[in-house]
Each structure stands twice: as C-alpha cells, then as structure tokens.
Amino acid sequence: MEKIKTDINVGQQIFDNVPSAVRPDWAGLILKRFDRHIDKLPTEIIGLYEIIEDSKKWKDAHEQFTAIRRLNLKNTDSEFEIYLCLAECIAKITYNAAGLPAPFDSDSGFYIPRLALKFADTISDEYLKQEVKATILIFNRNKGLRKSIKAAKDLITYKKIDDILWYDWDPIGINDVAPRDEYSGYVAGIFSLKKEGADRIKIGKRLLDLETNTIGMPSDLEECLIIADKILAV
Fold first, then answer.
1. Which tens digits make up the pLDDT trace of 180-218?
2. How far is it, in rounded angstroms, from Cα 2 to Cα 167?
3. Which of 102, 169, 206, 211 has its C-alpha lying 20 to 30 A from 72's C-alpha?
4. Coil, strand or helix: which one is 2?
C-alpha cells in the first residue's frame, strides 16, 4: 500500500494493467468511492461523471479538466486539493482515451492510485480505504482481462451493479456501518439478468424477491423498479 503512495513506478504498473478502453470507467469508479464523503459534490465533478459514462463525450474531458483546474486554483483546503488533483488526472486520461490530437501527458494516469489513497487517508473510514484499494487494483487482480475488451467492460459493469446494490438499493440500511461485501452474493444474478437483456420489470421483481424472501425485509416494487432503472442505465 505504501509503495503505491510513494513510488510512481508502481502507479505506472497499476495503470498499465487497465485496458485503455475502460480506463475512464475505472478511474470514475475510484472517484465515486468518495462521493458520500464530500459535503456537496461540485458541479465540475458531476459533469466529469457524465462525460465518463458516455464514450462519445470523452472528447469533452479536456474542457472539463480546465473547469476542475479553475476550481482547484480557487480552493484553499489542502486536503480537498488532493481530491481535485485526482479529478484533474481522471479528466486527463478520459480525454486521452478519446484518441484525439494534443493529448495530456501520458503519465497522467500514473498518479491516480497515489492521489486516491492519499485522499482516503484524510478520511476516518477504514471501509473506504479498503474499497479504494480494491478498486484501484481491480485489473491487477484480473490481469487476464487485458486480452479481452469485452471481459474488461463486463467487469466494469459488474462493479457498477455492485455499487448500485450497495449504495442505492441497501434494503437493510447498513451501507455506512457494515462490511462492503454484504450484498456481493446477489450481484452475479442481477448481472446475468442484465446480460440476458431483462427488462426493468424482471430485474425489479428479482430485487423484490431478494428483499422479501431472501433477506426478509418489507419491500416495495416501485422502489425496486427505480433501482432496476439504475442498473439498466449502466
């Protein structure tokens, strides 16, 4: 862990293991770890997320980098500066992934692991630190995926569904106190439904069944359909 924060060569190794086609998504997942720890998410960050979610918009990340840099220049909080520098690097690698002329420095992504861990250290939440580290290393632990863009994209989708079940679904209401893997056992089934082309009703009913019959909590189909829509939007 310490080497990631001190040795840029380690950051390079981590970044190089992330397939170029999913680097913006990977970086966006890292940044999202911090959403609930930011009092008010800046519009510049929200805009960056919107760009990352649509590869056709990656070209707009150059302008978004400028917006984030301006925000950082006005910032006076040294800890928040780390977060904004992280966002700047993510905007850079997102623009670079668009394959357009005049890219940012090729080493921009090497600093993402370091900055993410350093900002996590400013927050008193051990679960957060574990989650940040796990997300940073997701492709290091699945190196074989570098040979298959489809498999790499599936892993990103799987992780995003895992996030939705944890942060948005959370039927027990424990995502601020319990281990991060509380709902991990349900992700594969929901992921399979999405891959099969299931509609919102089918996914919503599966969530309803999990809440009612597996977890044993009172449930509401309309609320489950809202979650289903988020899953389908991934």
1. 788 999 999 999 999 999 999 999 999 999 999 999 998
2. 28
3. 102
4. helix
Summarised one tens digit per residue, pLDDT across range 76-125 is 999 999 999 999 999 999 999 999 999 999 999 999 999 999 999 999 98
> Going by C-beta distance under 8 Å and a sequence separation of 6 or more, which residues neighbour residue 50?
57
> Could you give the CA distance from residue 46 to residue 202 in angstroms, rounded to a whole number?
30
Entry field: residues in the chain: 234
What is the C-alpha to C-alpha distance for residues 131 and 215, in angstroms, rounded to an integer?
A: 24
Distance CA 119, CA 42 (A): 16
Two tokens, residue 100: 């357009």
Q: Which amino acid is at 83?
A: Y
- In angstroms, the CA 234 to CA 53 distance is 8
Label residues 113-141 b or e (16+ Cβ within 10 Å = b): bbbbbbbbeebeeeebbebbbebbebbee
Which amino acid, 198? A
Two structure tokens written together for 224: 């489950």
8 A C-beta contact, residue 228 and residue 207: yes
DSSP-assigned letter for residue 36: G
What gap in Å lies between CA 198 and CA 205, rounded to an integer?
11
Cα–Cα distances in angstroms (integers) from residue 109 to residues 20, 102, 196, in the given order: 11, 16, 34
